Amino acid sequence: MNLERRARAALKRRRLLAAAALLGFFAALVFPALLLLDRGFPPPLGAVETSRAVTDRDGALLRPFAIADGRWRLRTQASEVDPRFLAMLIAYEDRRFLSHHGVDVLALLRAIGQFIGHGRVVSGASTITMQLARLLEPGHGRGLSAKLRQMVRALQIERRLSKDEILSLYLTLAPYGGNLEGVRAASLAYFGREPRRLEPSQAALLVSLPQAPEARRPDRAPQAARAARDQVLARMARAGVLSWREAKSAAAQPLSARRREFPAHAAHAALAARLAPADARGEVRLTISLRIQRALEQLAKDHAGASRSGLSVAILAADHRSGEILAHVGSTGFFDGGPGGQIDMANAARSPGSTLKPLIYGLAFETGLVRPATMIDDRPADFSGYRPHNFDQAYQGSVTVAEALQLSLNVPAVRLLDAVGPVRLISRLRRAGIAPRLPGADAPGLAIALGGLGLSLKDLVQLYGAFAGGGEMVPLHAIGASPDGAAPVRLLEPAASWYVASILAGVAPPRGARGAGIAYKTGTSYGYRDAWAIGFDGAYTIGVWVGRPDGTAVPGLTGISHAAPVLFEAFTRIALRRMPLAPAPAGAALRSTGELPPPLRYFASPSALSANGGAGGPKISFPPDGAHVDLGLERGAALALKVQGGALPFRWLANGHPLDLPAHRRQLFWPGAERGFSTLTVIDAEGRSSAVRVFLD
Is 398 a catalytic residue? Predict the structure, then answer.
C-alpha cells in the first residue's frame, strides 16, 4: 500500500511539473507575443447585431423585434440589471472577475491540479471574459486549442474594454435556451419582467442557464431547471451572497415553467418605427406613454369585445401643444388573426361623416359671414340638384349657428360651405399638411361637408388640436421632435378657432358618460360604415374610430352611440389632469342674436335660397335680374325694392348678409347700398325665396 501511495504521489508530482512547465512555456512564449498578435488579429468587437427595440417616452419597452435569423437578442447594460443578480453571477462563474486580466491564473492552476489528482476535468477555469470570447467567435469547439484561443482573446478584450463593458456584452450574448440570448430577453420571456428587479429565485435560475441552456430550459425541462436553480442558491448561501434563510425561501418558490410572449404594445406604431434610425443601444424611442397606451388598448378591447358585430376600434391620443402622440391604438386584433386587425385604422382614409363641419363653421367665422348667435335656416334646400337632409330626416327651422353645429344639422353646414367655397376648405386643409382623398378628378363639391372625401383619424386629431390651440396646428409625431422641426401651422384665426371650441364645449355628453370639460364632435359616415368621436380639452386631443376595417356596413352604428362613449371613457382612463380650454382672444365674445350688428343676425346662402322658390313663392319684380341701376350713390340715393307673391313677413339679404328692412311691406327702399354687383334675396314666411343679381352705380 505504501508503495502504491508513493507511486500515485510521484505521478502527481510529474503531472504537476508538466503542468508548471506548460504554463512556463506559455508565459515565456505566448505572452510576449500578445502585442504582435493583438495588432495582427484583433478580437471581433465590431457591431453586434441586436434586436431592434421600440420604447416609450421613458424608455419602457413597447415592442422588440427579433434579429434576422429569428433570435431575440436585446442589448443589455450591466447598470440595468439587478445588482444581486450580478453578484450571484460573478460569485458563481468568475469570483475574481474584477481583479484578473482576462485569465484567472489561480483558477487555471486549481483546474490543472484537480485534473492531475482525478485524471479528468473536475472544474473549468473559464472566466466571464473567456466565455465572452467564445460567444463572439462560436464554432471552435471545446478542446485545448479552443481554450488557448479563448485565453488569448480574453487578454485582448481586457485591453480594450472596461469590466462594465465586458459584463454588458456578456449579458447581451449569453445563451438562455431556444432563440433567447441575453439576460433581458430571458427575463422577459421567462418572468415577464425587466431584469432590473429580480427575485432571488429568478436570479438564480438565470445564473444557471448559460452553462446548459437547452438542458435546463424551464419551459421544457422544469425539473432540471429547478435542480440547477437550487444548486446556485446553495452555493450563494455558502459564498455569503445570500443568507441561508433567503436561499431556503427562494428554493421553496415555484418555478415559472412557461415562456411568455414579448411585450407588443402600440403594435402598428412600433412596426412603422422599426426601420427608423436607432440609438447606440439599438432602440427607437417614441413619444408614446406605455401607461396611456395600455389603458387605451384595454379600452378598445373592452368595447370591441362587448360588440357582436365584428367591430374594431382605433384610438389616437395626442398632446396638441407639442404634437406628441401619447397613444396609438390602430385596431383591436393585430395579433388575433381577426379580419383587418393588422390594418392601421388610425392612418386609414375613411369618410369622416360630420367631423369636418367644425372647420366649415370656423372658416365662416373667420370670413365674417356669421357669429355663433347668427340665425340660419335648417329647411329643405336644393343646391343645383344636391339636396342634403338631416340624419333624422327632420328639420329645425331657424336656429342659431351654434345650435346648428351642436346638433350637427346638415343643411346649415352645406349652406355655409356653399358660401365659404369647397375649394377654400380643401386648400386650408392642404396648407395645414392634411391631404384629403377626393373621389375622382373633379373639383371638390358641397358633399364634402357631410363626409364626401377621405380623412384619417390622425388627420382629424391633428385638425381638432388646432381648435384647442387657438387656431395653430402642431404636426403630430411619434418619433423624436416635430417632423423636420416644423413650426405650428395657422389653420384658423384665433377668434374663429375659439368660437368653434366654445360651441363644441357646449355639446351634451353621451348618456351615462363620465367626465366634463371636453369639447367634442361626432360623425357617422354614409351607410353606417364609420363612427367617429373627436374631443379635446386645453392640452389633449383624443380621436376614436369604430367600424369594420373592410368597410362593411353595421346597421345602427353611429358616432354618438358607439364612438362618443369610448371617447369619454378614454379621457377618464388615461387619468391626466383636465386642462381648461383657452380663454377668449381679443375681439372674440359670445353675444345674443339681438346684440349682433343687423347684417350678422341672419344668414342664408343665396345660391340655395334662390332655388327655393316655387308656386306661390315671392318674386322680386324690381330691380330685375341683371339690371344696371344708376342711383347716383355718391348722392346717398336709396334703391327701390318690390316683391310680388309670397307670404309676409319678408326677410331681405344682400350678398348673404341680412338687411335691416321692414318685414311687412312689399315695396320699400334700401338705403346705404354699395357700388358694384350685389345679389339681393328675399325670403318669405314659408322659406320660399327669390334672388336677383344687379349692378348698382
Answer: no
